[in-house]
Amino acid sequence: MWQLVAFVILFLAAGVFIAGGVMRGKGAGSLVFVVLGGSGVLLFGAGMLMSAGAMLARRPVLEIDSEGVRRPARWPMPRRADRGLPWSRTAALTAVRRGVAGTRGGVQDYLVFLPTPELAELARTAERPHLVALTLQDVPATREAVPWCFPVEPGWDATLPEIVRQARRRHRVTVIDRRTK
After folding, report:
1. Pairing between strand 92-99 and 174-178?
2. N- to C-terminal Cα separation, the chain
3. Residue 95: beta bridge partners?
4. Is 176:120 a contact under the CB 8 Å cutoff?
5. What is the pTM of this model?
6. Which among 10, 65, 111, 146 is placed 20 to 30 Å from 24, CA to CA?
7. Contact between 83 and 71 (Cβ < 8 Å)
């Protein structure tokens, strides 16, 4: 919602740039304002449409079924672009906490489906800095887990324990909770 509001404000500001350039008359300064405003209208208008579409499409972040885990593609991508992790390739799932409690940024919980036994062992035994690597894209050792890392948002319609219960109900999977260690 707030992203859409930001794009609307920027879109309107770009329109003001165009109006200012047109009202000023002919000249290099006016032309610069019209060009900048036109670029802003195109860019921020596209961003506004993408943001509104994502709000209206309301695709789930995570789907769990008897076949495995599916990460639906973000709008406007078609559903055939979804990614799936079958249960046969799921070694474990882990809950990880990233951030520092008591700070302004706070903490964020992550649910990570681990596709290899090596990553499961890392999640079970690693110190906190190595655990956080499970949520980062640019760490080569844990890159395989990144597509299956889900930040647990407050707006989700299921809590982390409910998601774990649903996963265990569908497939016998090891659960590693490292949020407090």
Report:
1. parallel
2. 35
3. 111, 177
4. yes
5. 0.71
6. 10
7. yes
Reading the block at residue 111, the tokens are 């649910």
Vertex 171 angle, CA 165 and 173, to 5°: 75
CB 125 within 8 A of CB 114: no
99: tokens are 């951030």
Q: What is the pLDDT of residues 93-128, one digit of tens each?
A: 999 988 866 666 688 889 999 999 999 999 999 887
Euclidean distance between CA atoms 125 and 136, whole angstroms: 18
Both tokens of 38, joined, read: 């036109």
* Edge-to-edge strands, sheet with 83-86: 63-64, 68-71, 83-86
Whether the Cβ atoms of residue 68 and residue 167 lie closer than 8 Å to each other: no
Q: With H, G, I as helix, E, B as strand and everything else as coil, classify residue 82.
A: coil
- What tokens does 24 get? 């000023």
Within 10 angstroms of residue 118's Cβ, the number of other Cβ atoms is 13
Tokens of 76: 């406007």
Average of per-residue pLDDT across 157-164: 90
Cα–Cα distance for residue pair 120/90, rounded to 1 Å: 9
* Alpha-helical regions (H) of the chain: 2-24, 28-57, 117-125, 128-132, 160-170
Give whole-number Cα distances, 113 to 84, 146, 162, 172, in Å. 11, 9, 15, 13
| Residue type at 130 in one-letter notation | H
